[in-house]
Amino acid sequence: MGRLANFKDYLVDCRGMVSAADKHLSQLQEKYESFFAEVSKVREHEYEQLRDHILDNRDKLPTELIKALDASRAEVEQEFDEKLKKLRAQHKKAVARAEKRRLDSLKKEKLIRKKNVRLDKEEEGLKDRSEKLLNQIKEFNQRIRQMGRGFGFFTNLFKMRKIQKERRRLAKEQTDTAARIEVLRGRWEKYDEDYAKNEKKLQQEWIDLNTEANSFHTKIDHLEAARAHILQRSAIEKVVFNRLADMPKPQPSDPACPRCKHPNPIGYHFCHICAKRLNQDRPDLDGSLAEIAELNLHHRRFSEGMQACQEIIGLMRGLMSGFDAFMKGVDDMITSENKYPLAKLQINVPPKSVSYGQNFAKLEKSVKQDHSLHPIEFAQQIKELIADTYTEEKIKTYFETMGQELTIQADKQW
Q1: How far apart are CA 293 and CA 242, in angstroms?
Q2: Under 8 Å CB-to-CB from 165, ≥6 apart: which residues?
Q3: Which is deepest, 19, 103, 279, 378, by most CB within 10 Å?
């Protein structure tokens, strides 16, 4: 039987293998990204060369290409106008919403002013009433003192009782009036507090909506100003960037690229890995069409391969986060074991988890091999490796099995 420390060591080892695989994949992805940037740069150069042919010599273009360009122009123009229409509608809506917040703010401001005026008048009226009551009470007190002097106390006894009764009524009314003033002031403060909160909220909403409206306006202005250029570029791109060459797959016996040393068939104009030109540039229309079709193929395969690699890296990061969270739980148990009078937990990693964990070593070994492959080919190999092994359900079961074993043994032994 092992201890919690041994359990923790197992998790650290597995996490280390996943981390090593992630590090190698990240380095490989960085390498692929630099190659992809070069492919994109060369493709852009070929596009510019081809664009000049299209714009300067339209009459000499093949009929099929002219038809494709005209159809593309009509399609992208429709898409552009629909996008512009949508942006204008969004701009109009944002302006309307911002204006509504501004009007709501003005309305609430007028309302609070009106309430403040009414409350102010009401308070002043109550203050006047309170002052009058205090004066009357003072007068009654003086009359009671005068009537109570000497023998007048006996002769004025019944009158004094009547006056005192009236005095008590006035005192009660004055007390009620003072209380109403305090209640009124509380209501006033509450109105002001609520108004301040609502006004702050309205102002922030107005700022956000106004910013959004200005953003839409800026986009609209840019699109309108650049309309001709955008339509021209989009129409040409739609045609030339969709052309794909039917290229033979590289073989180990093919000539090596002088820069990256990867094999490329003799008919390749560019290295399919690092995009170095392998044959002399063909600036004519047919040559440019052939070259960009080849670059489009390389560009598309690189894009797909890099996306697959990113997904694999995401899986590695998810696994590492899972190990980190699990190890924290084990660390907490070790702390409790050392801090409190608990028995040293006797526990082993469940065989089912040990068996599954062997896949981490296989993964690390696989990604550390020398992969002189295009990213999409490398990604396909890795995806085949993890398609059945690293599913969400199996990873979840792996961690849950260990978690259940920890719970069971802790309940039994502690």
Answers
A1: 8
A2: none
A3: 378
- Nearest CA to 284 out of 41, 63, 53 is that of 53
* Helix, strand and coil in the chain, % to nearest 5: 80, 0, 20
Range 242-252 burial, b when 16+ CB lie within 10 A, else e: ebbbebeebee
Closest among 273, 270, 272 to 281, alpha carbons compared: 270
Cα–Cα nearest to 185, from 121, 119, 129, 130: 119
Tens-digit pLDDT string for the chain (414 aa) = 689 999 999 999 999 999 999 998 888 888 888 888 998 999 999 999 999 999 998 888 999 999 999 999 999 999 999 999 999 999 999 999 988 888 887 777 676 666 656 666 666 666 676 677 667 666 666 665 555 554 444 444 445 455 556 666 666 766 766 666 667 666 666 666 666 777 778 788 888 888 999 999 999 999 999 999 999 999 999 999 999 999 898 898 999 999 888 899 998 999 988 889 998 888 899 999 999 999 999 898 888 888 888 888 898 999 999 999 999 999 999 998 888 888 888 999 999 999 999 999 988 888 876 555 677 777 777 777 777 888 889 999 999 999 999 999 998 888
Q: 261 in helix, strand or coil?
A: coil
C-beta separation of 298 from 377 below 8 A: no
Query: What is the rounded CA–CA span in Å between residue 31 and residue 260?
Result: 11
At residue 280's C-alpha, the angle toward residues 278 and 283, to 5°, is: 130
